[in-house]
Amino acid sequence: MAKFKSEELLNELAQDVRRIKEAAQFLVTADKNKLAYCPEEGRWSAVQAVEHLNGYNRHYLPLIEKELSLITYDKNAWFTSGYWGERFTKMMKPTNVYEIKNKMKTAKKMSFPNSLHVETVLNEFIAGQDKLLQLLELAKGKDLAKIHIPITFTKLIKLRLGDTLRFLIAHEQRHMIQARNTLKKTGVTTDKFPVLLSVTETSQQQKK
């Protein structure tokens, strides 16, 4: 399993979240009709992809905040990922900044109709990124392996806090790239859309 210096991992994840927030702020400037455009039947619009992420944040962020407030395990300088956490993160993490190659099915409760209020969806997502940054800062004083968070589709599987954060942020990177690509198909220029993966992250994913 992968091993990280805890504070370095949290700082890198925080930088990822800042890029994701910038990407959401780019979407705010786009035409609302184009954000709600579905390229083809069975495909999500850009705003549906963001609402999907909101659904995950509604599950994970309150649980993470609750556990951080209750658990008093001392900080550990190192974090080692668990089996499920490493597997789920690898499944979600994009291998490049341009496309999502490994398609995955979505649970019905995390798939939303294309009748969404675009501004409300984006505002909620941006607020979620601010909350996530706060939680990453709070996590610096905790043992990332001792706190466990249940995943969305079963309470039987719980991920270590460090893995939960890695998975959640990889999932956001994945679907923000999807939102960017969907928006690009409407003719919107996405040159100013932030690069969501660092060179290091991209090279690491391609080696796996």
UniProtKB/TrEMBL annotation:
It comes from the Bacteria. Residues 21-178 form the DinB-like domain. Pfam families: DinB_2. This is DinB family protein.
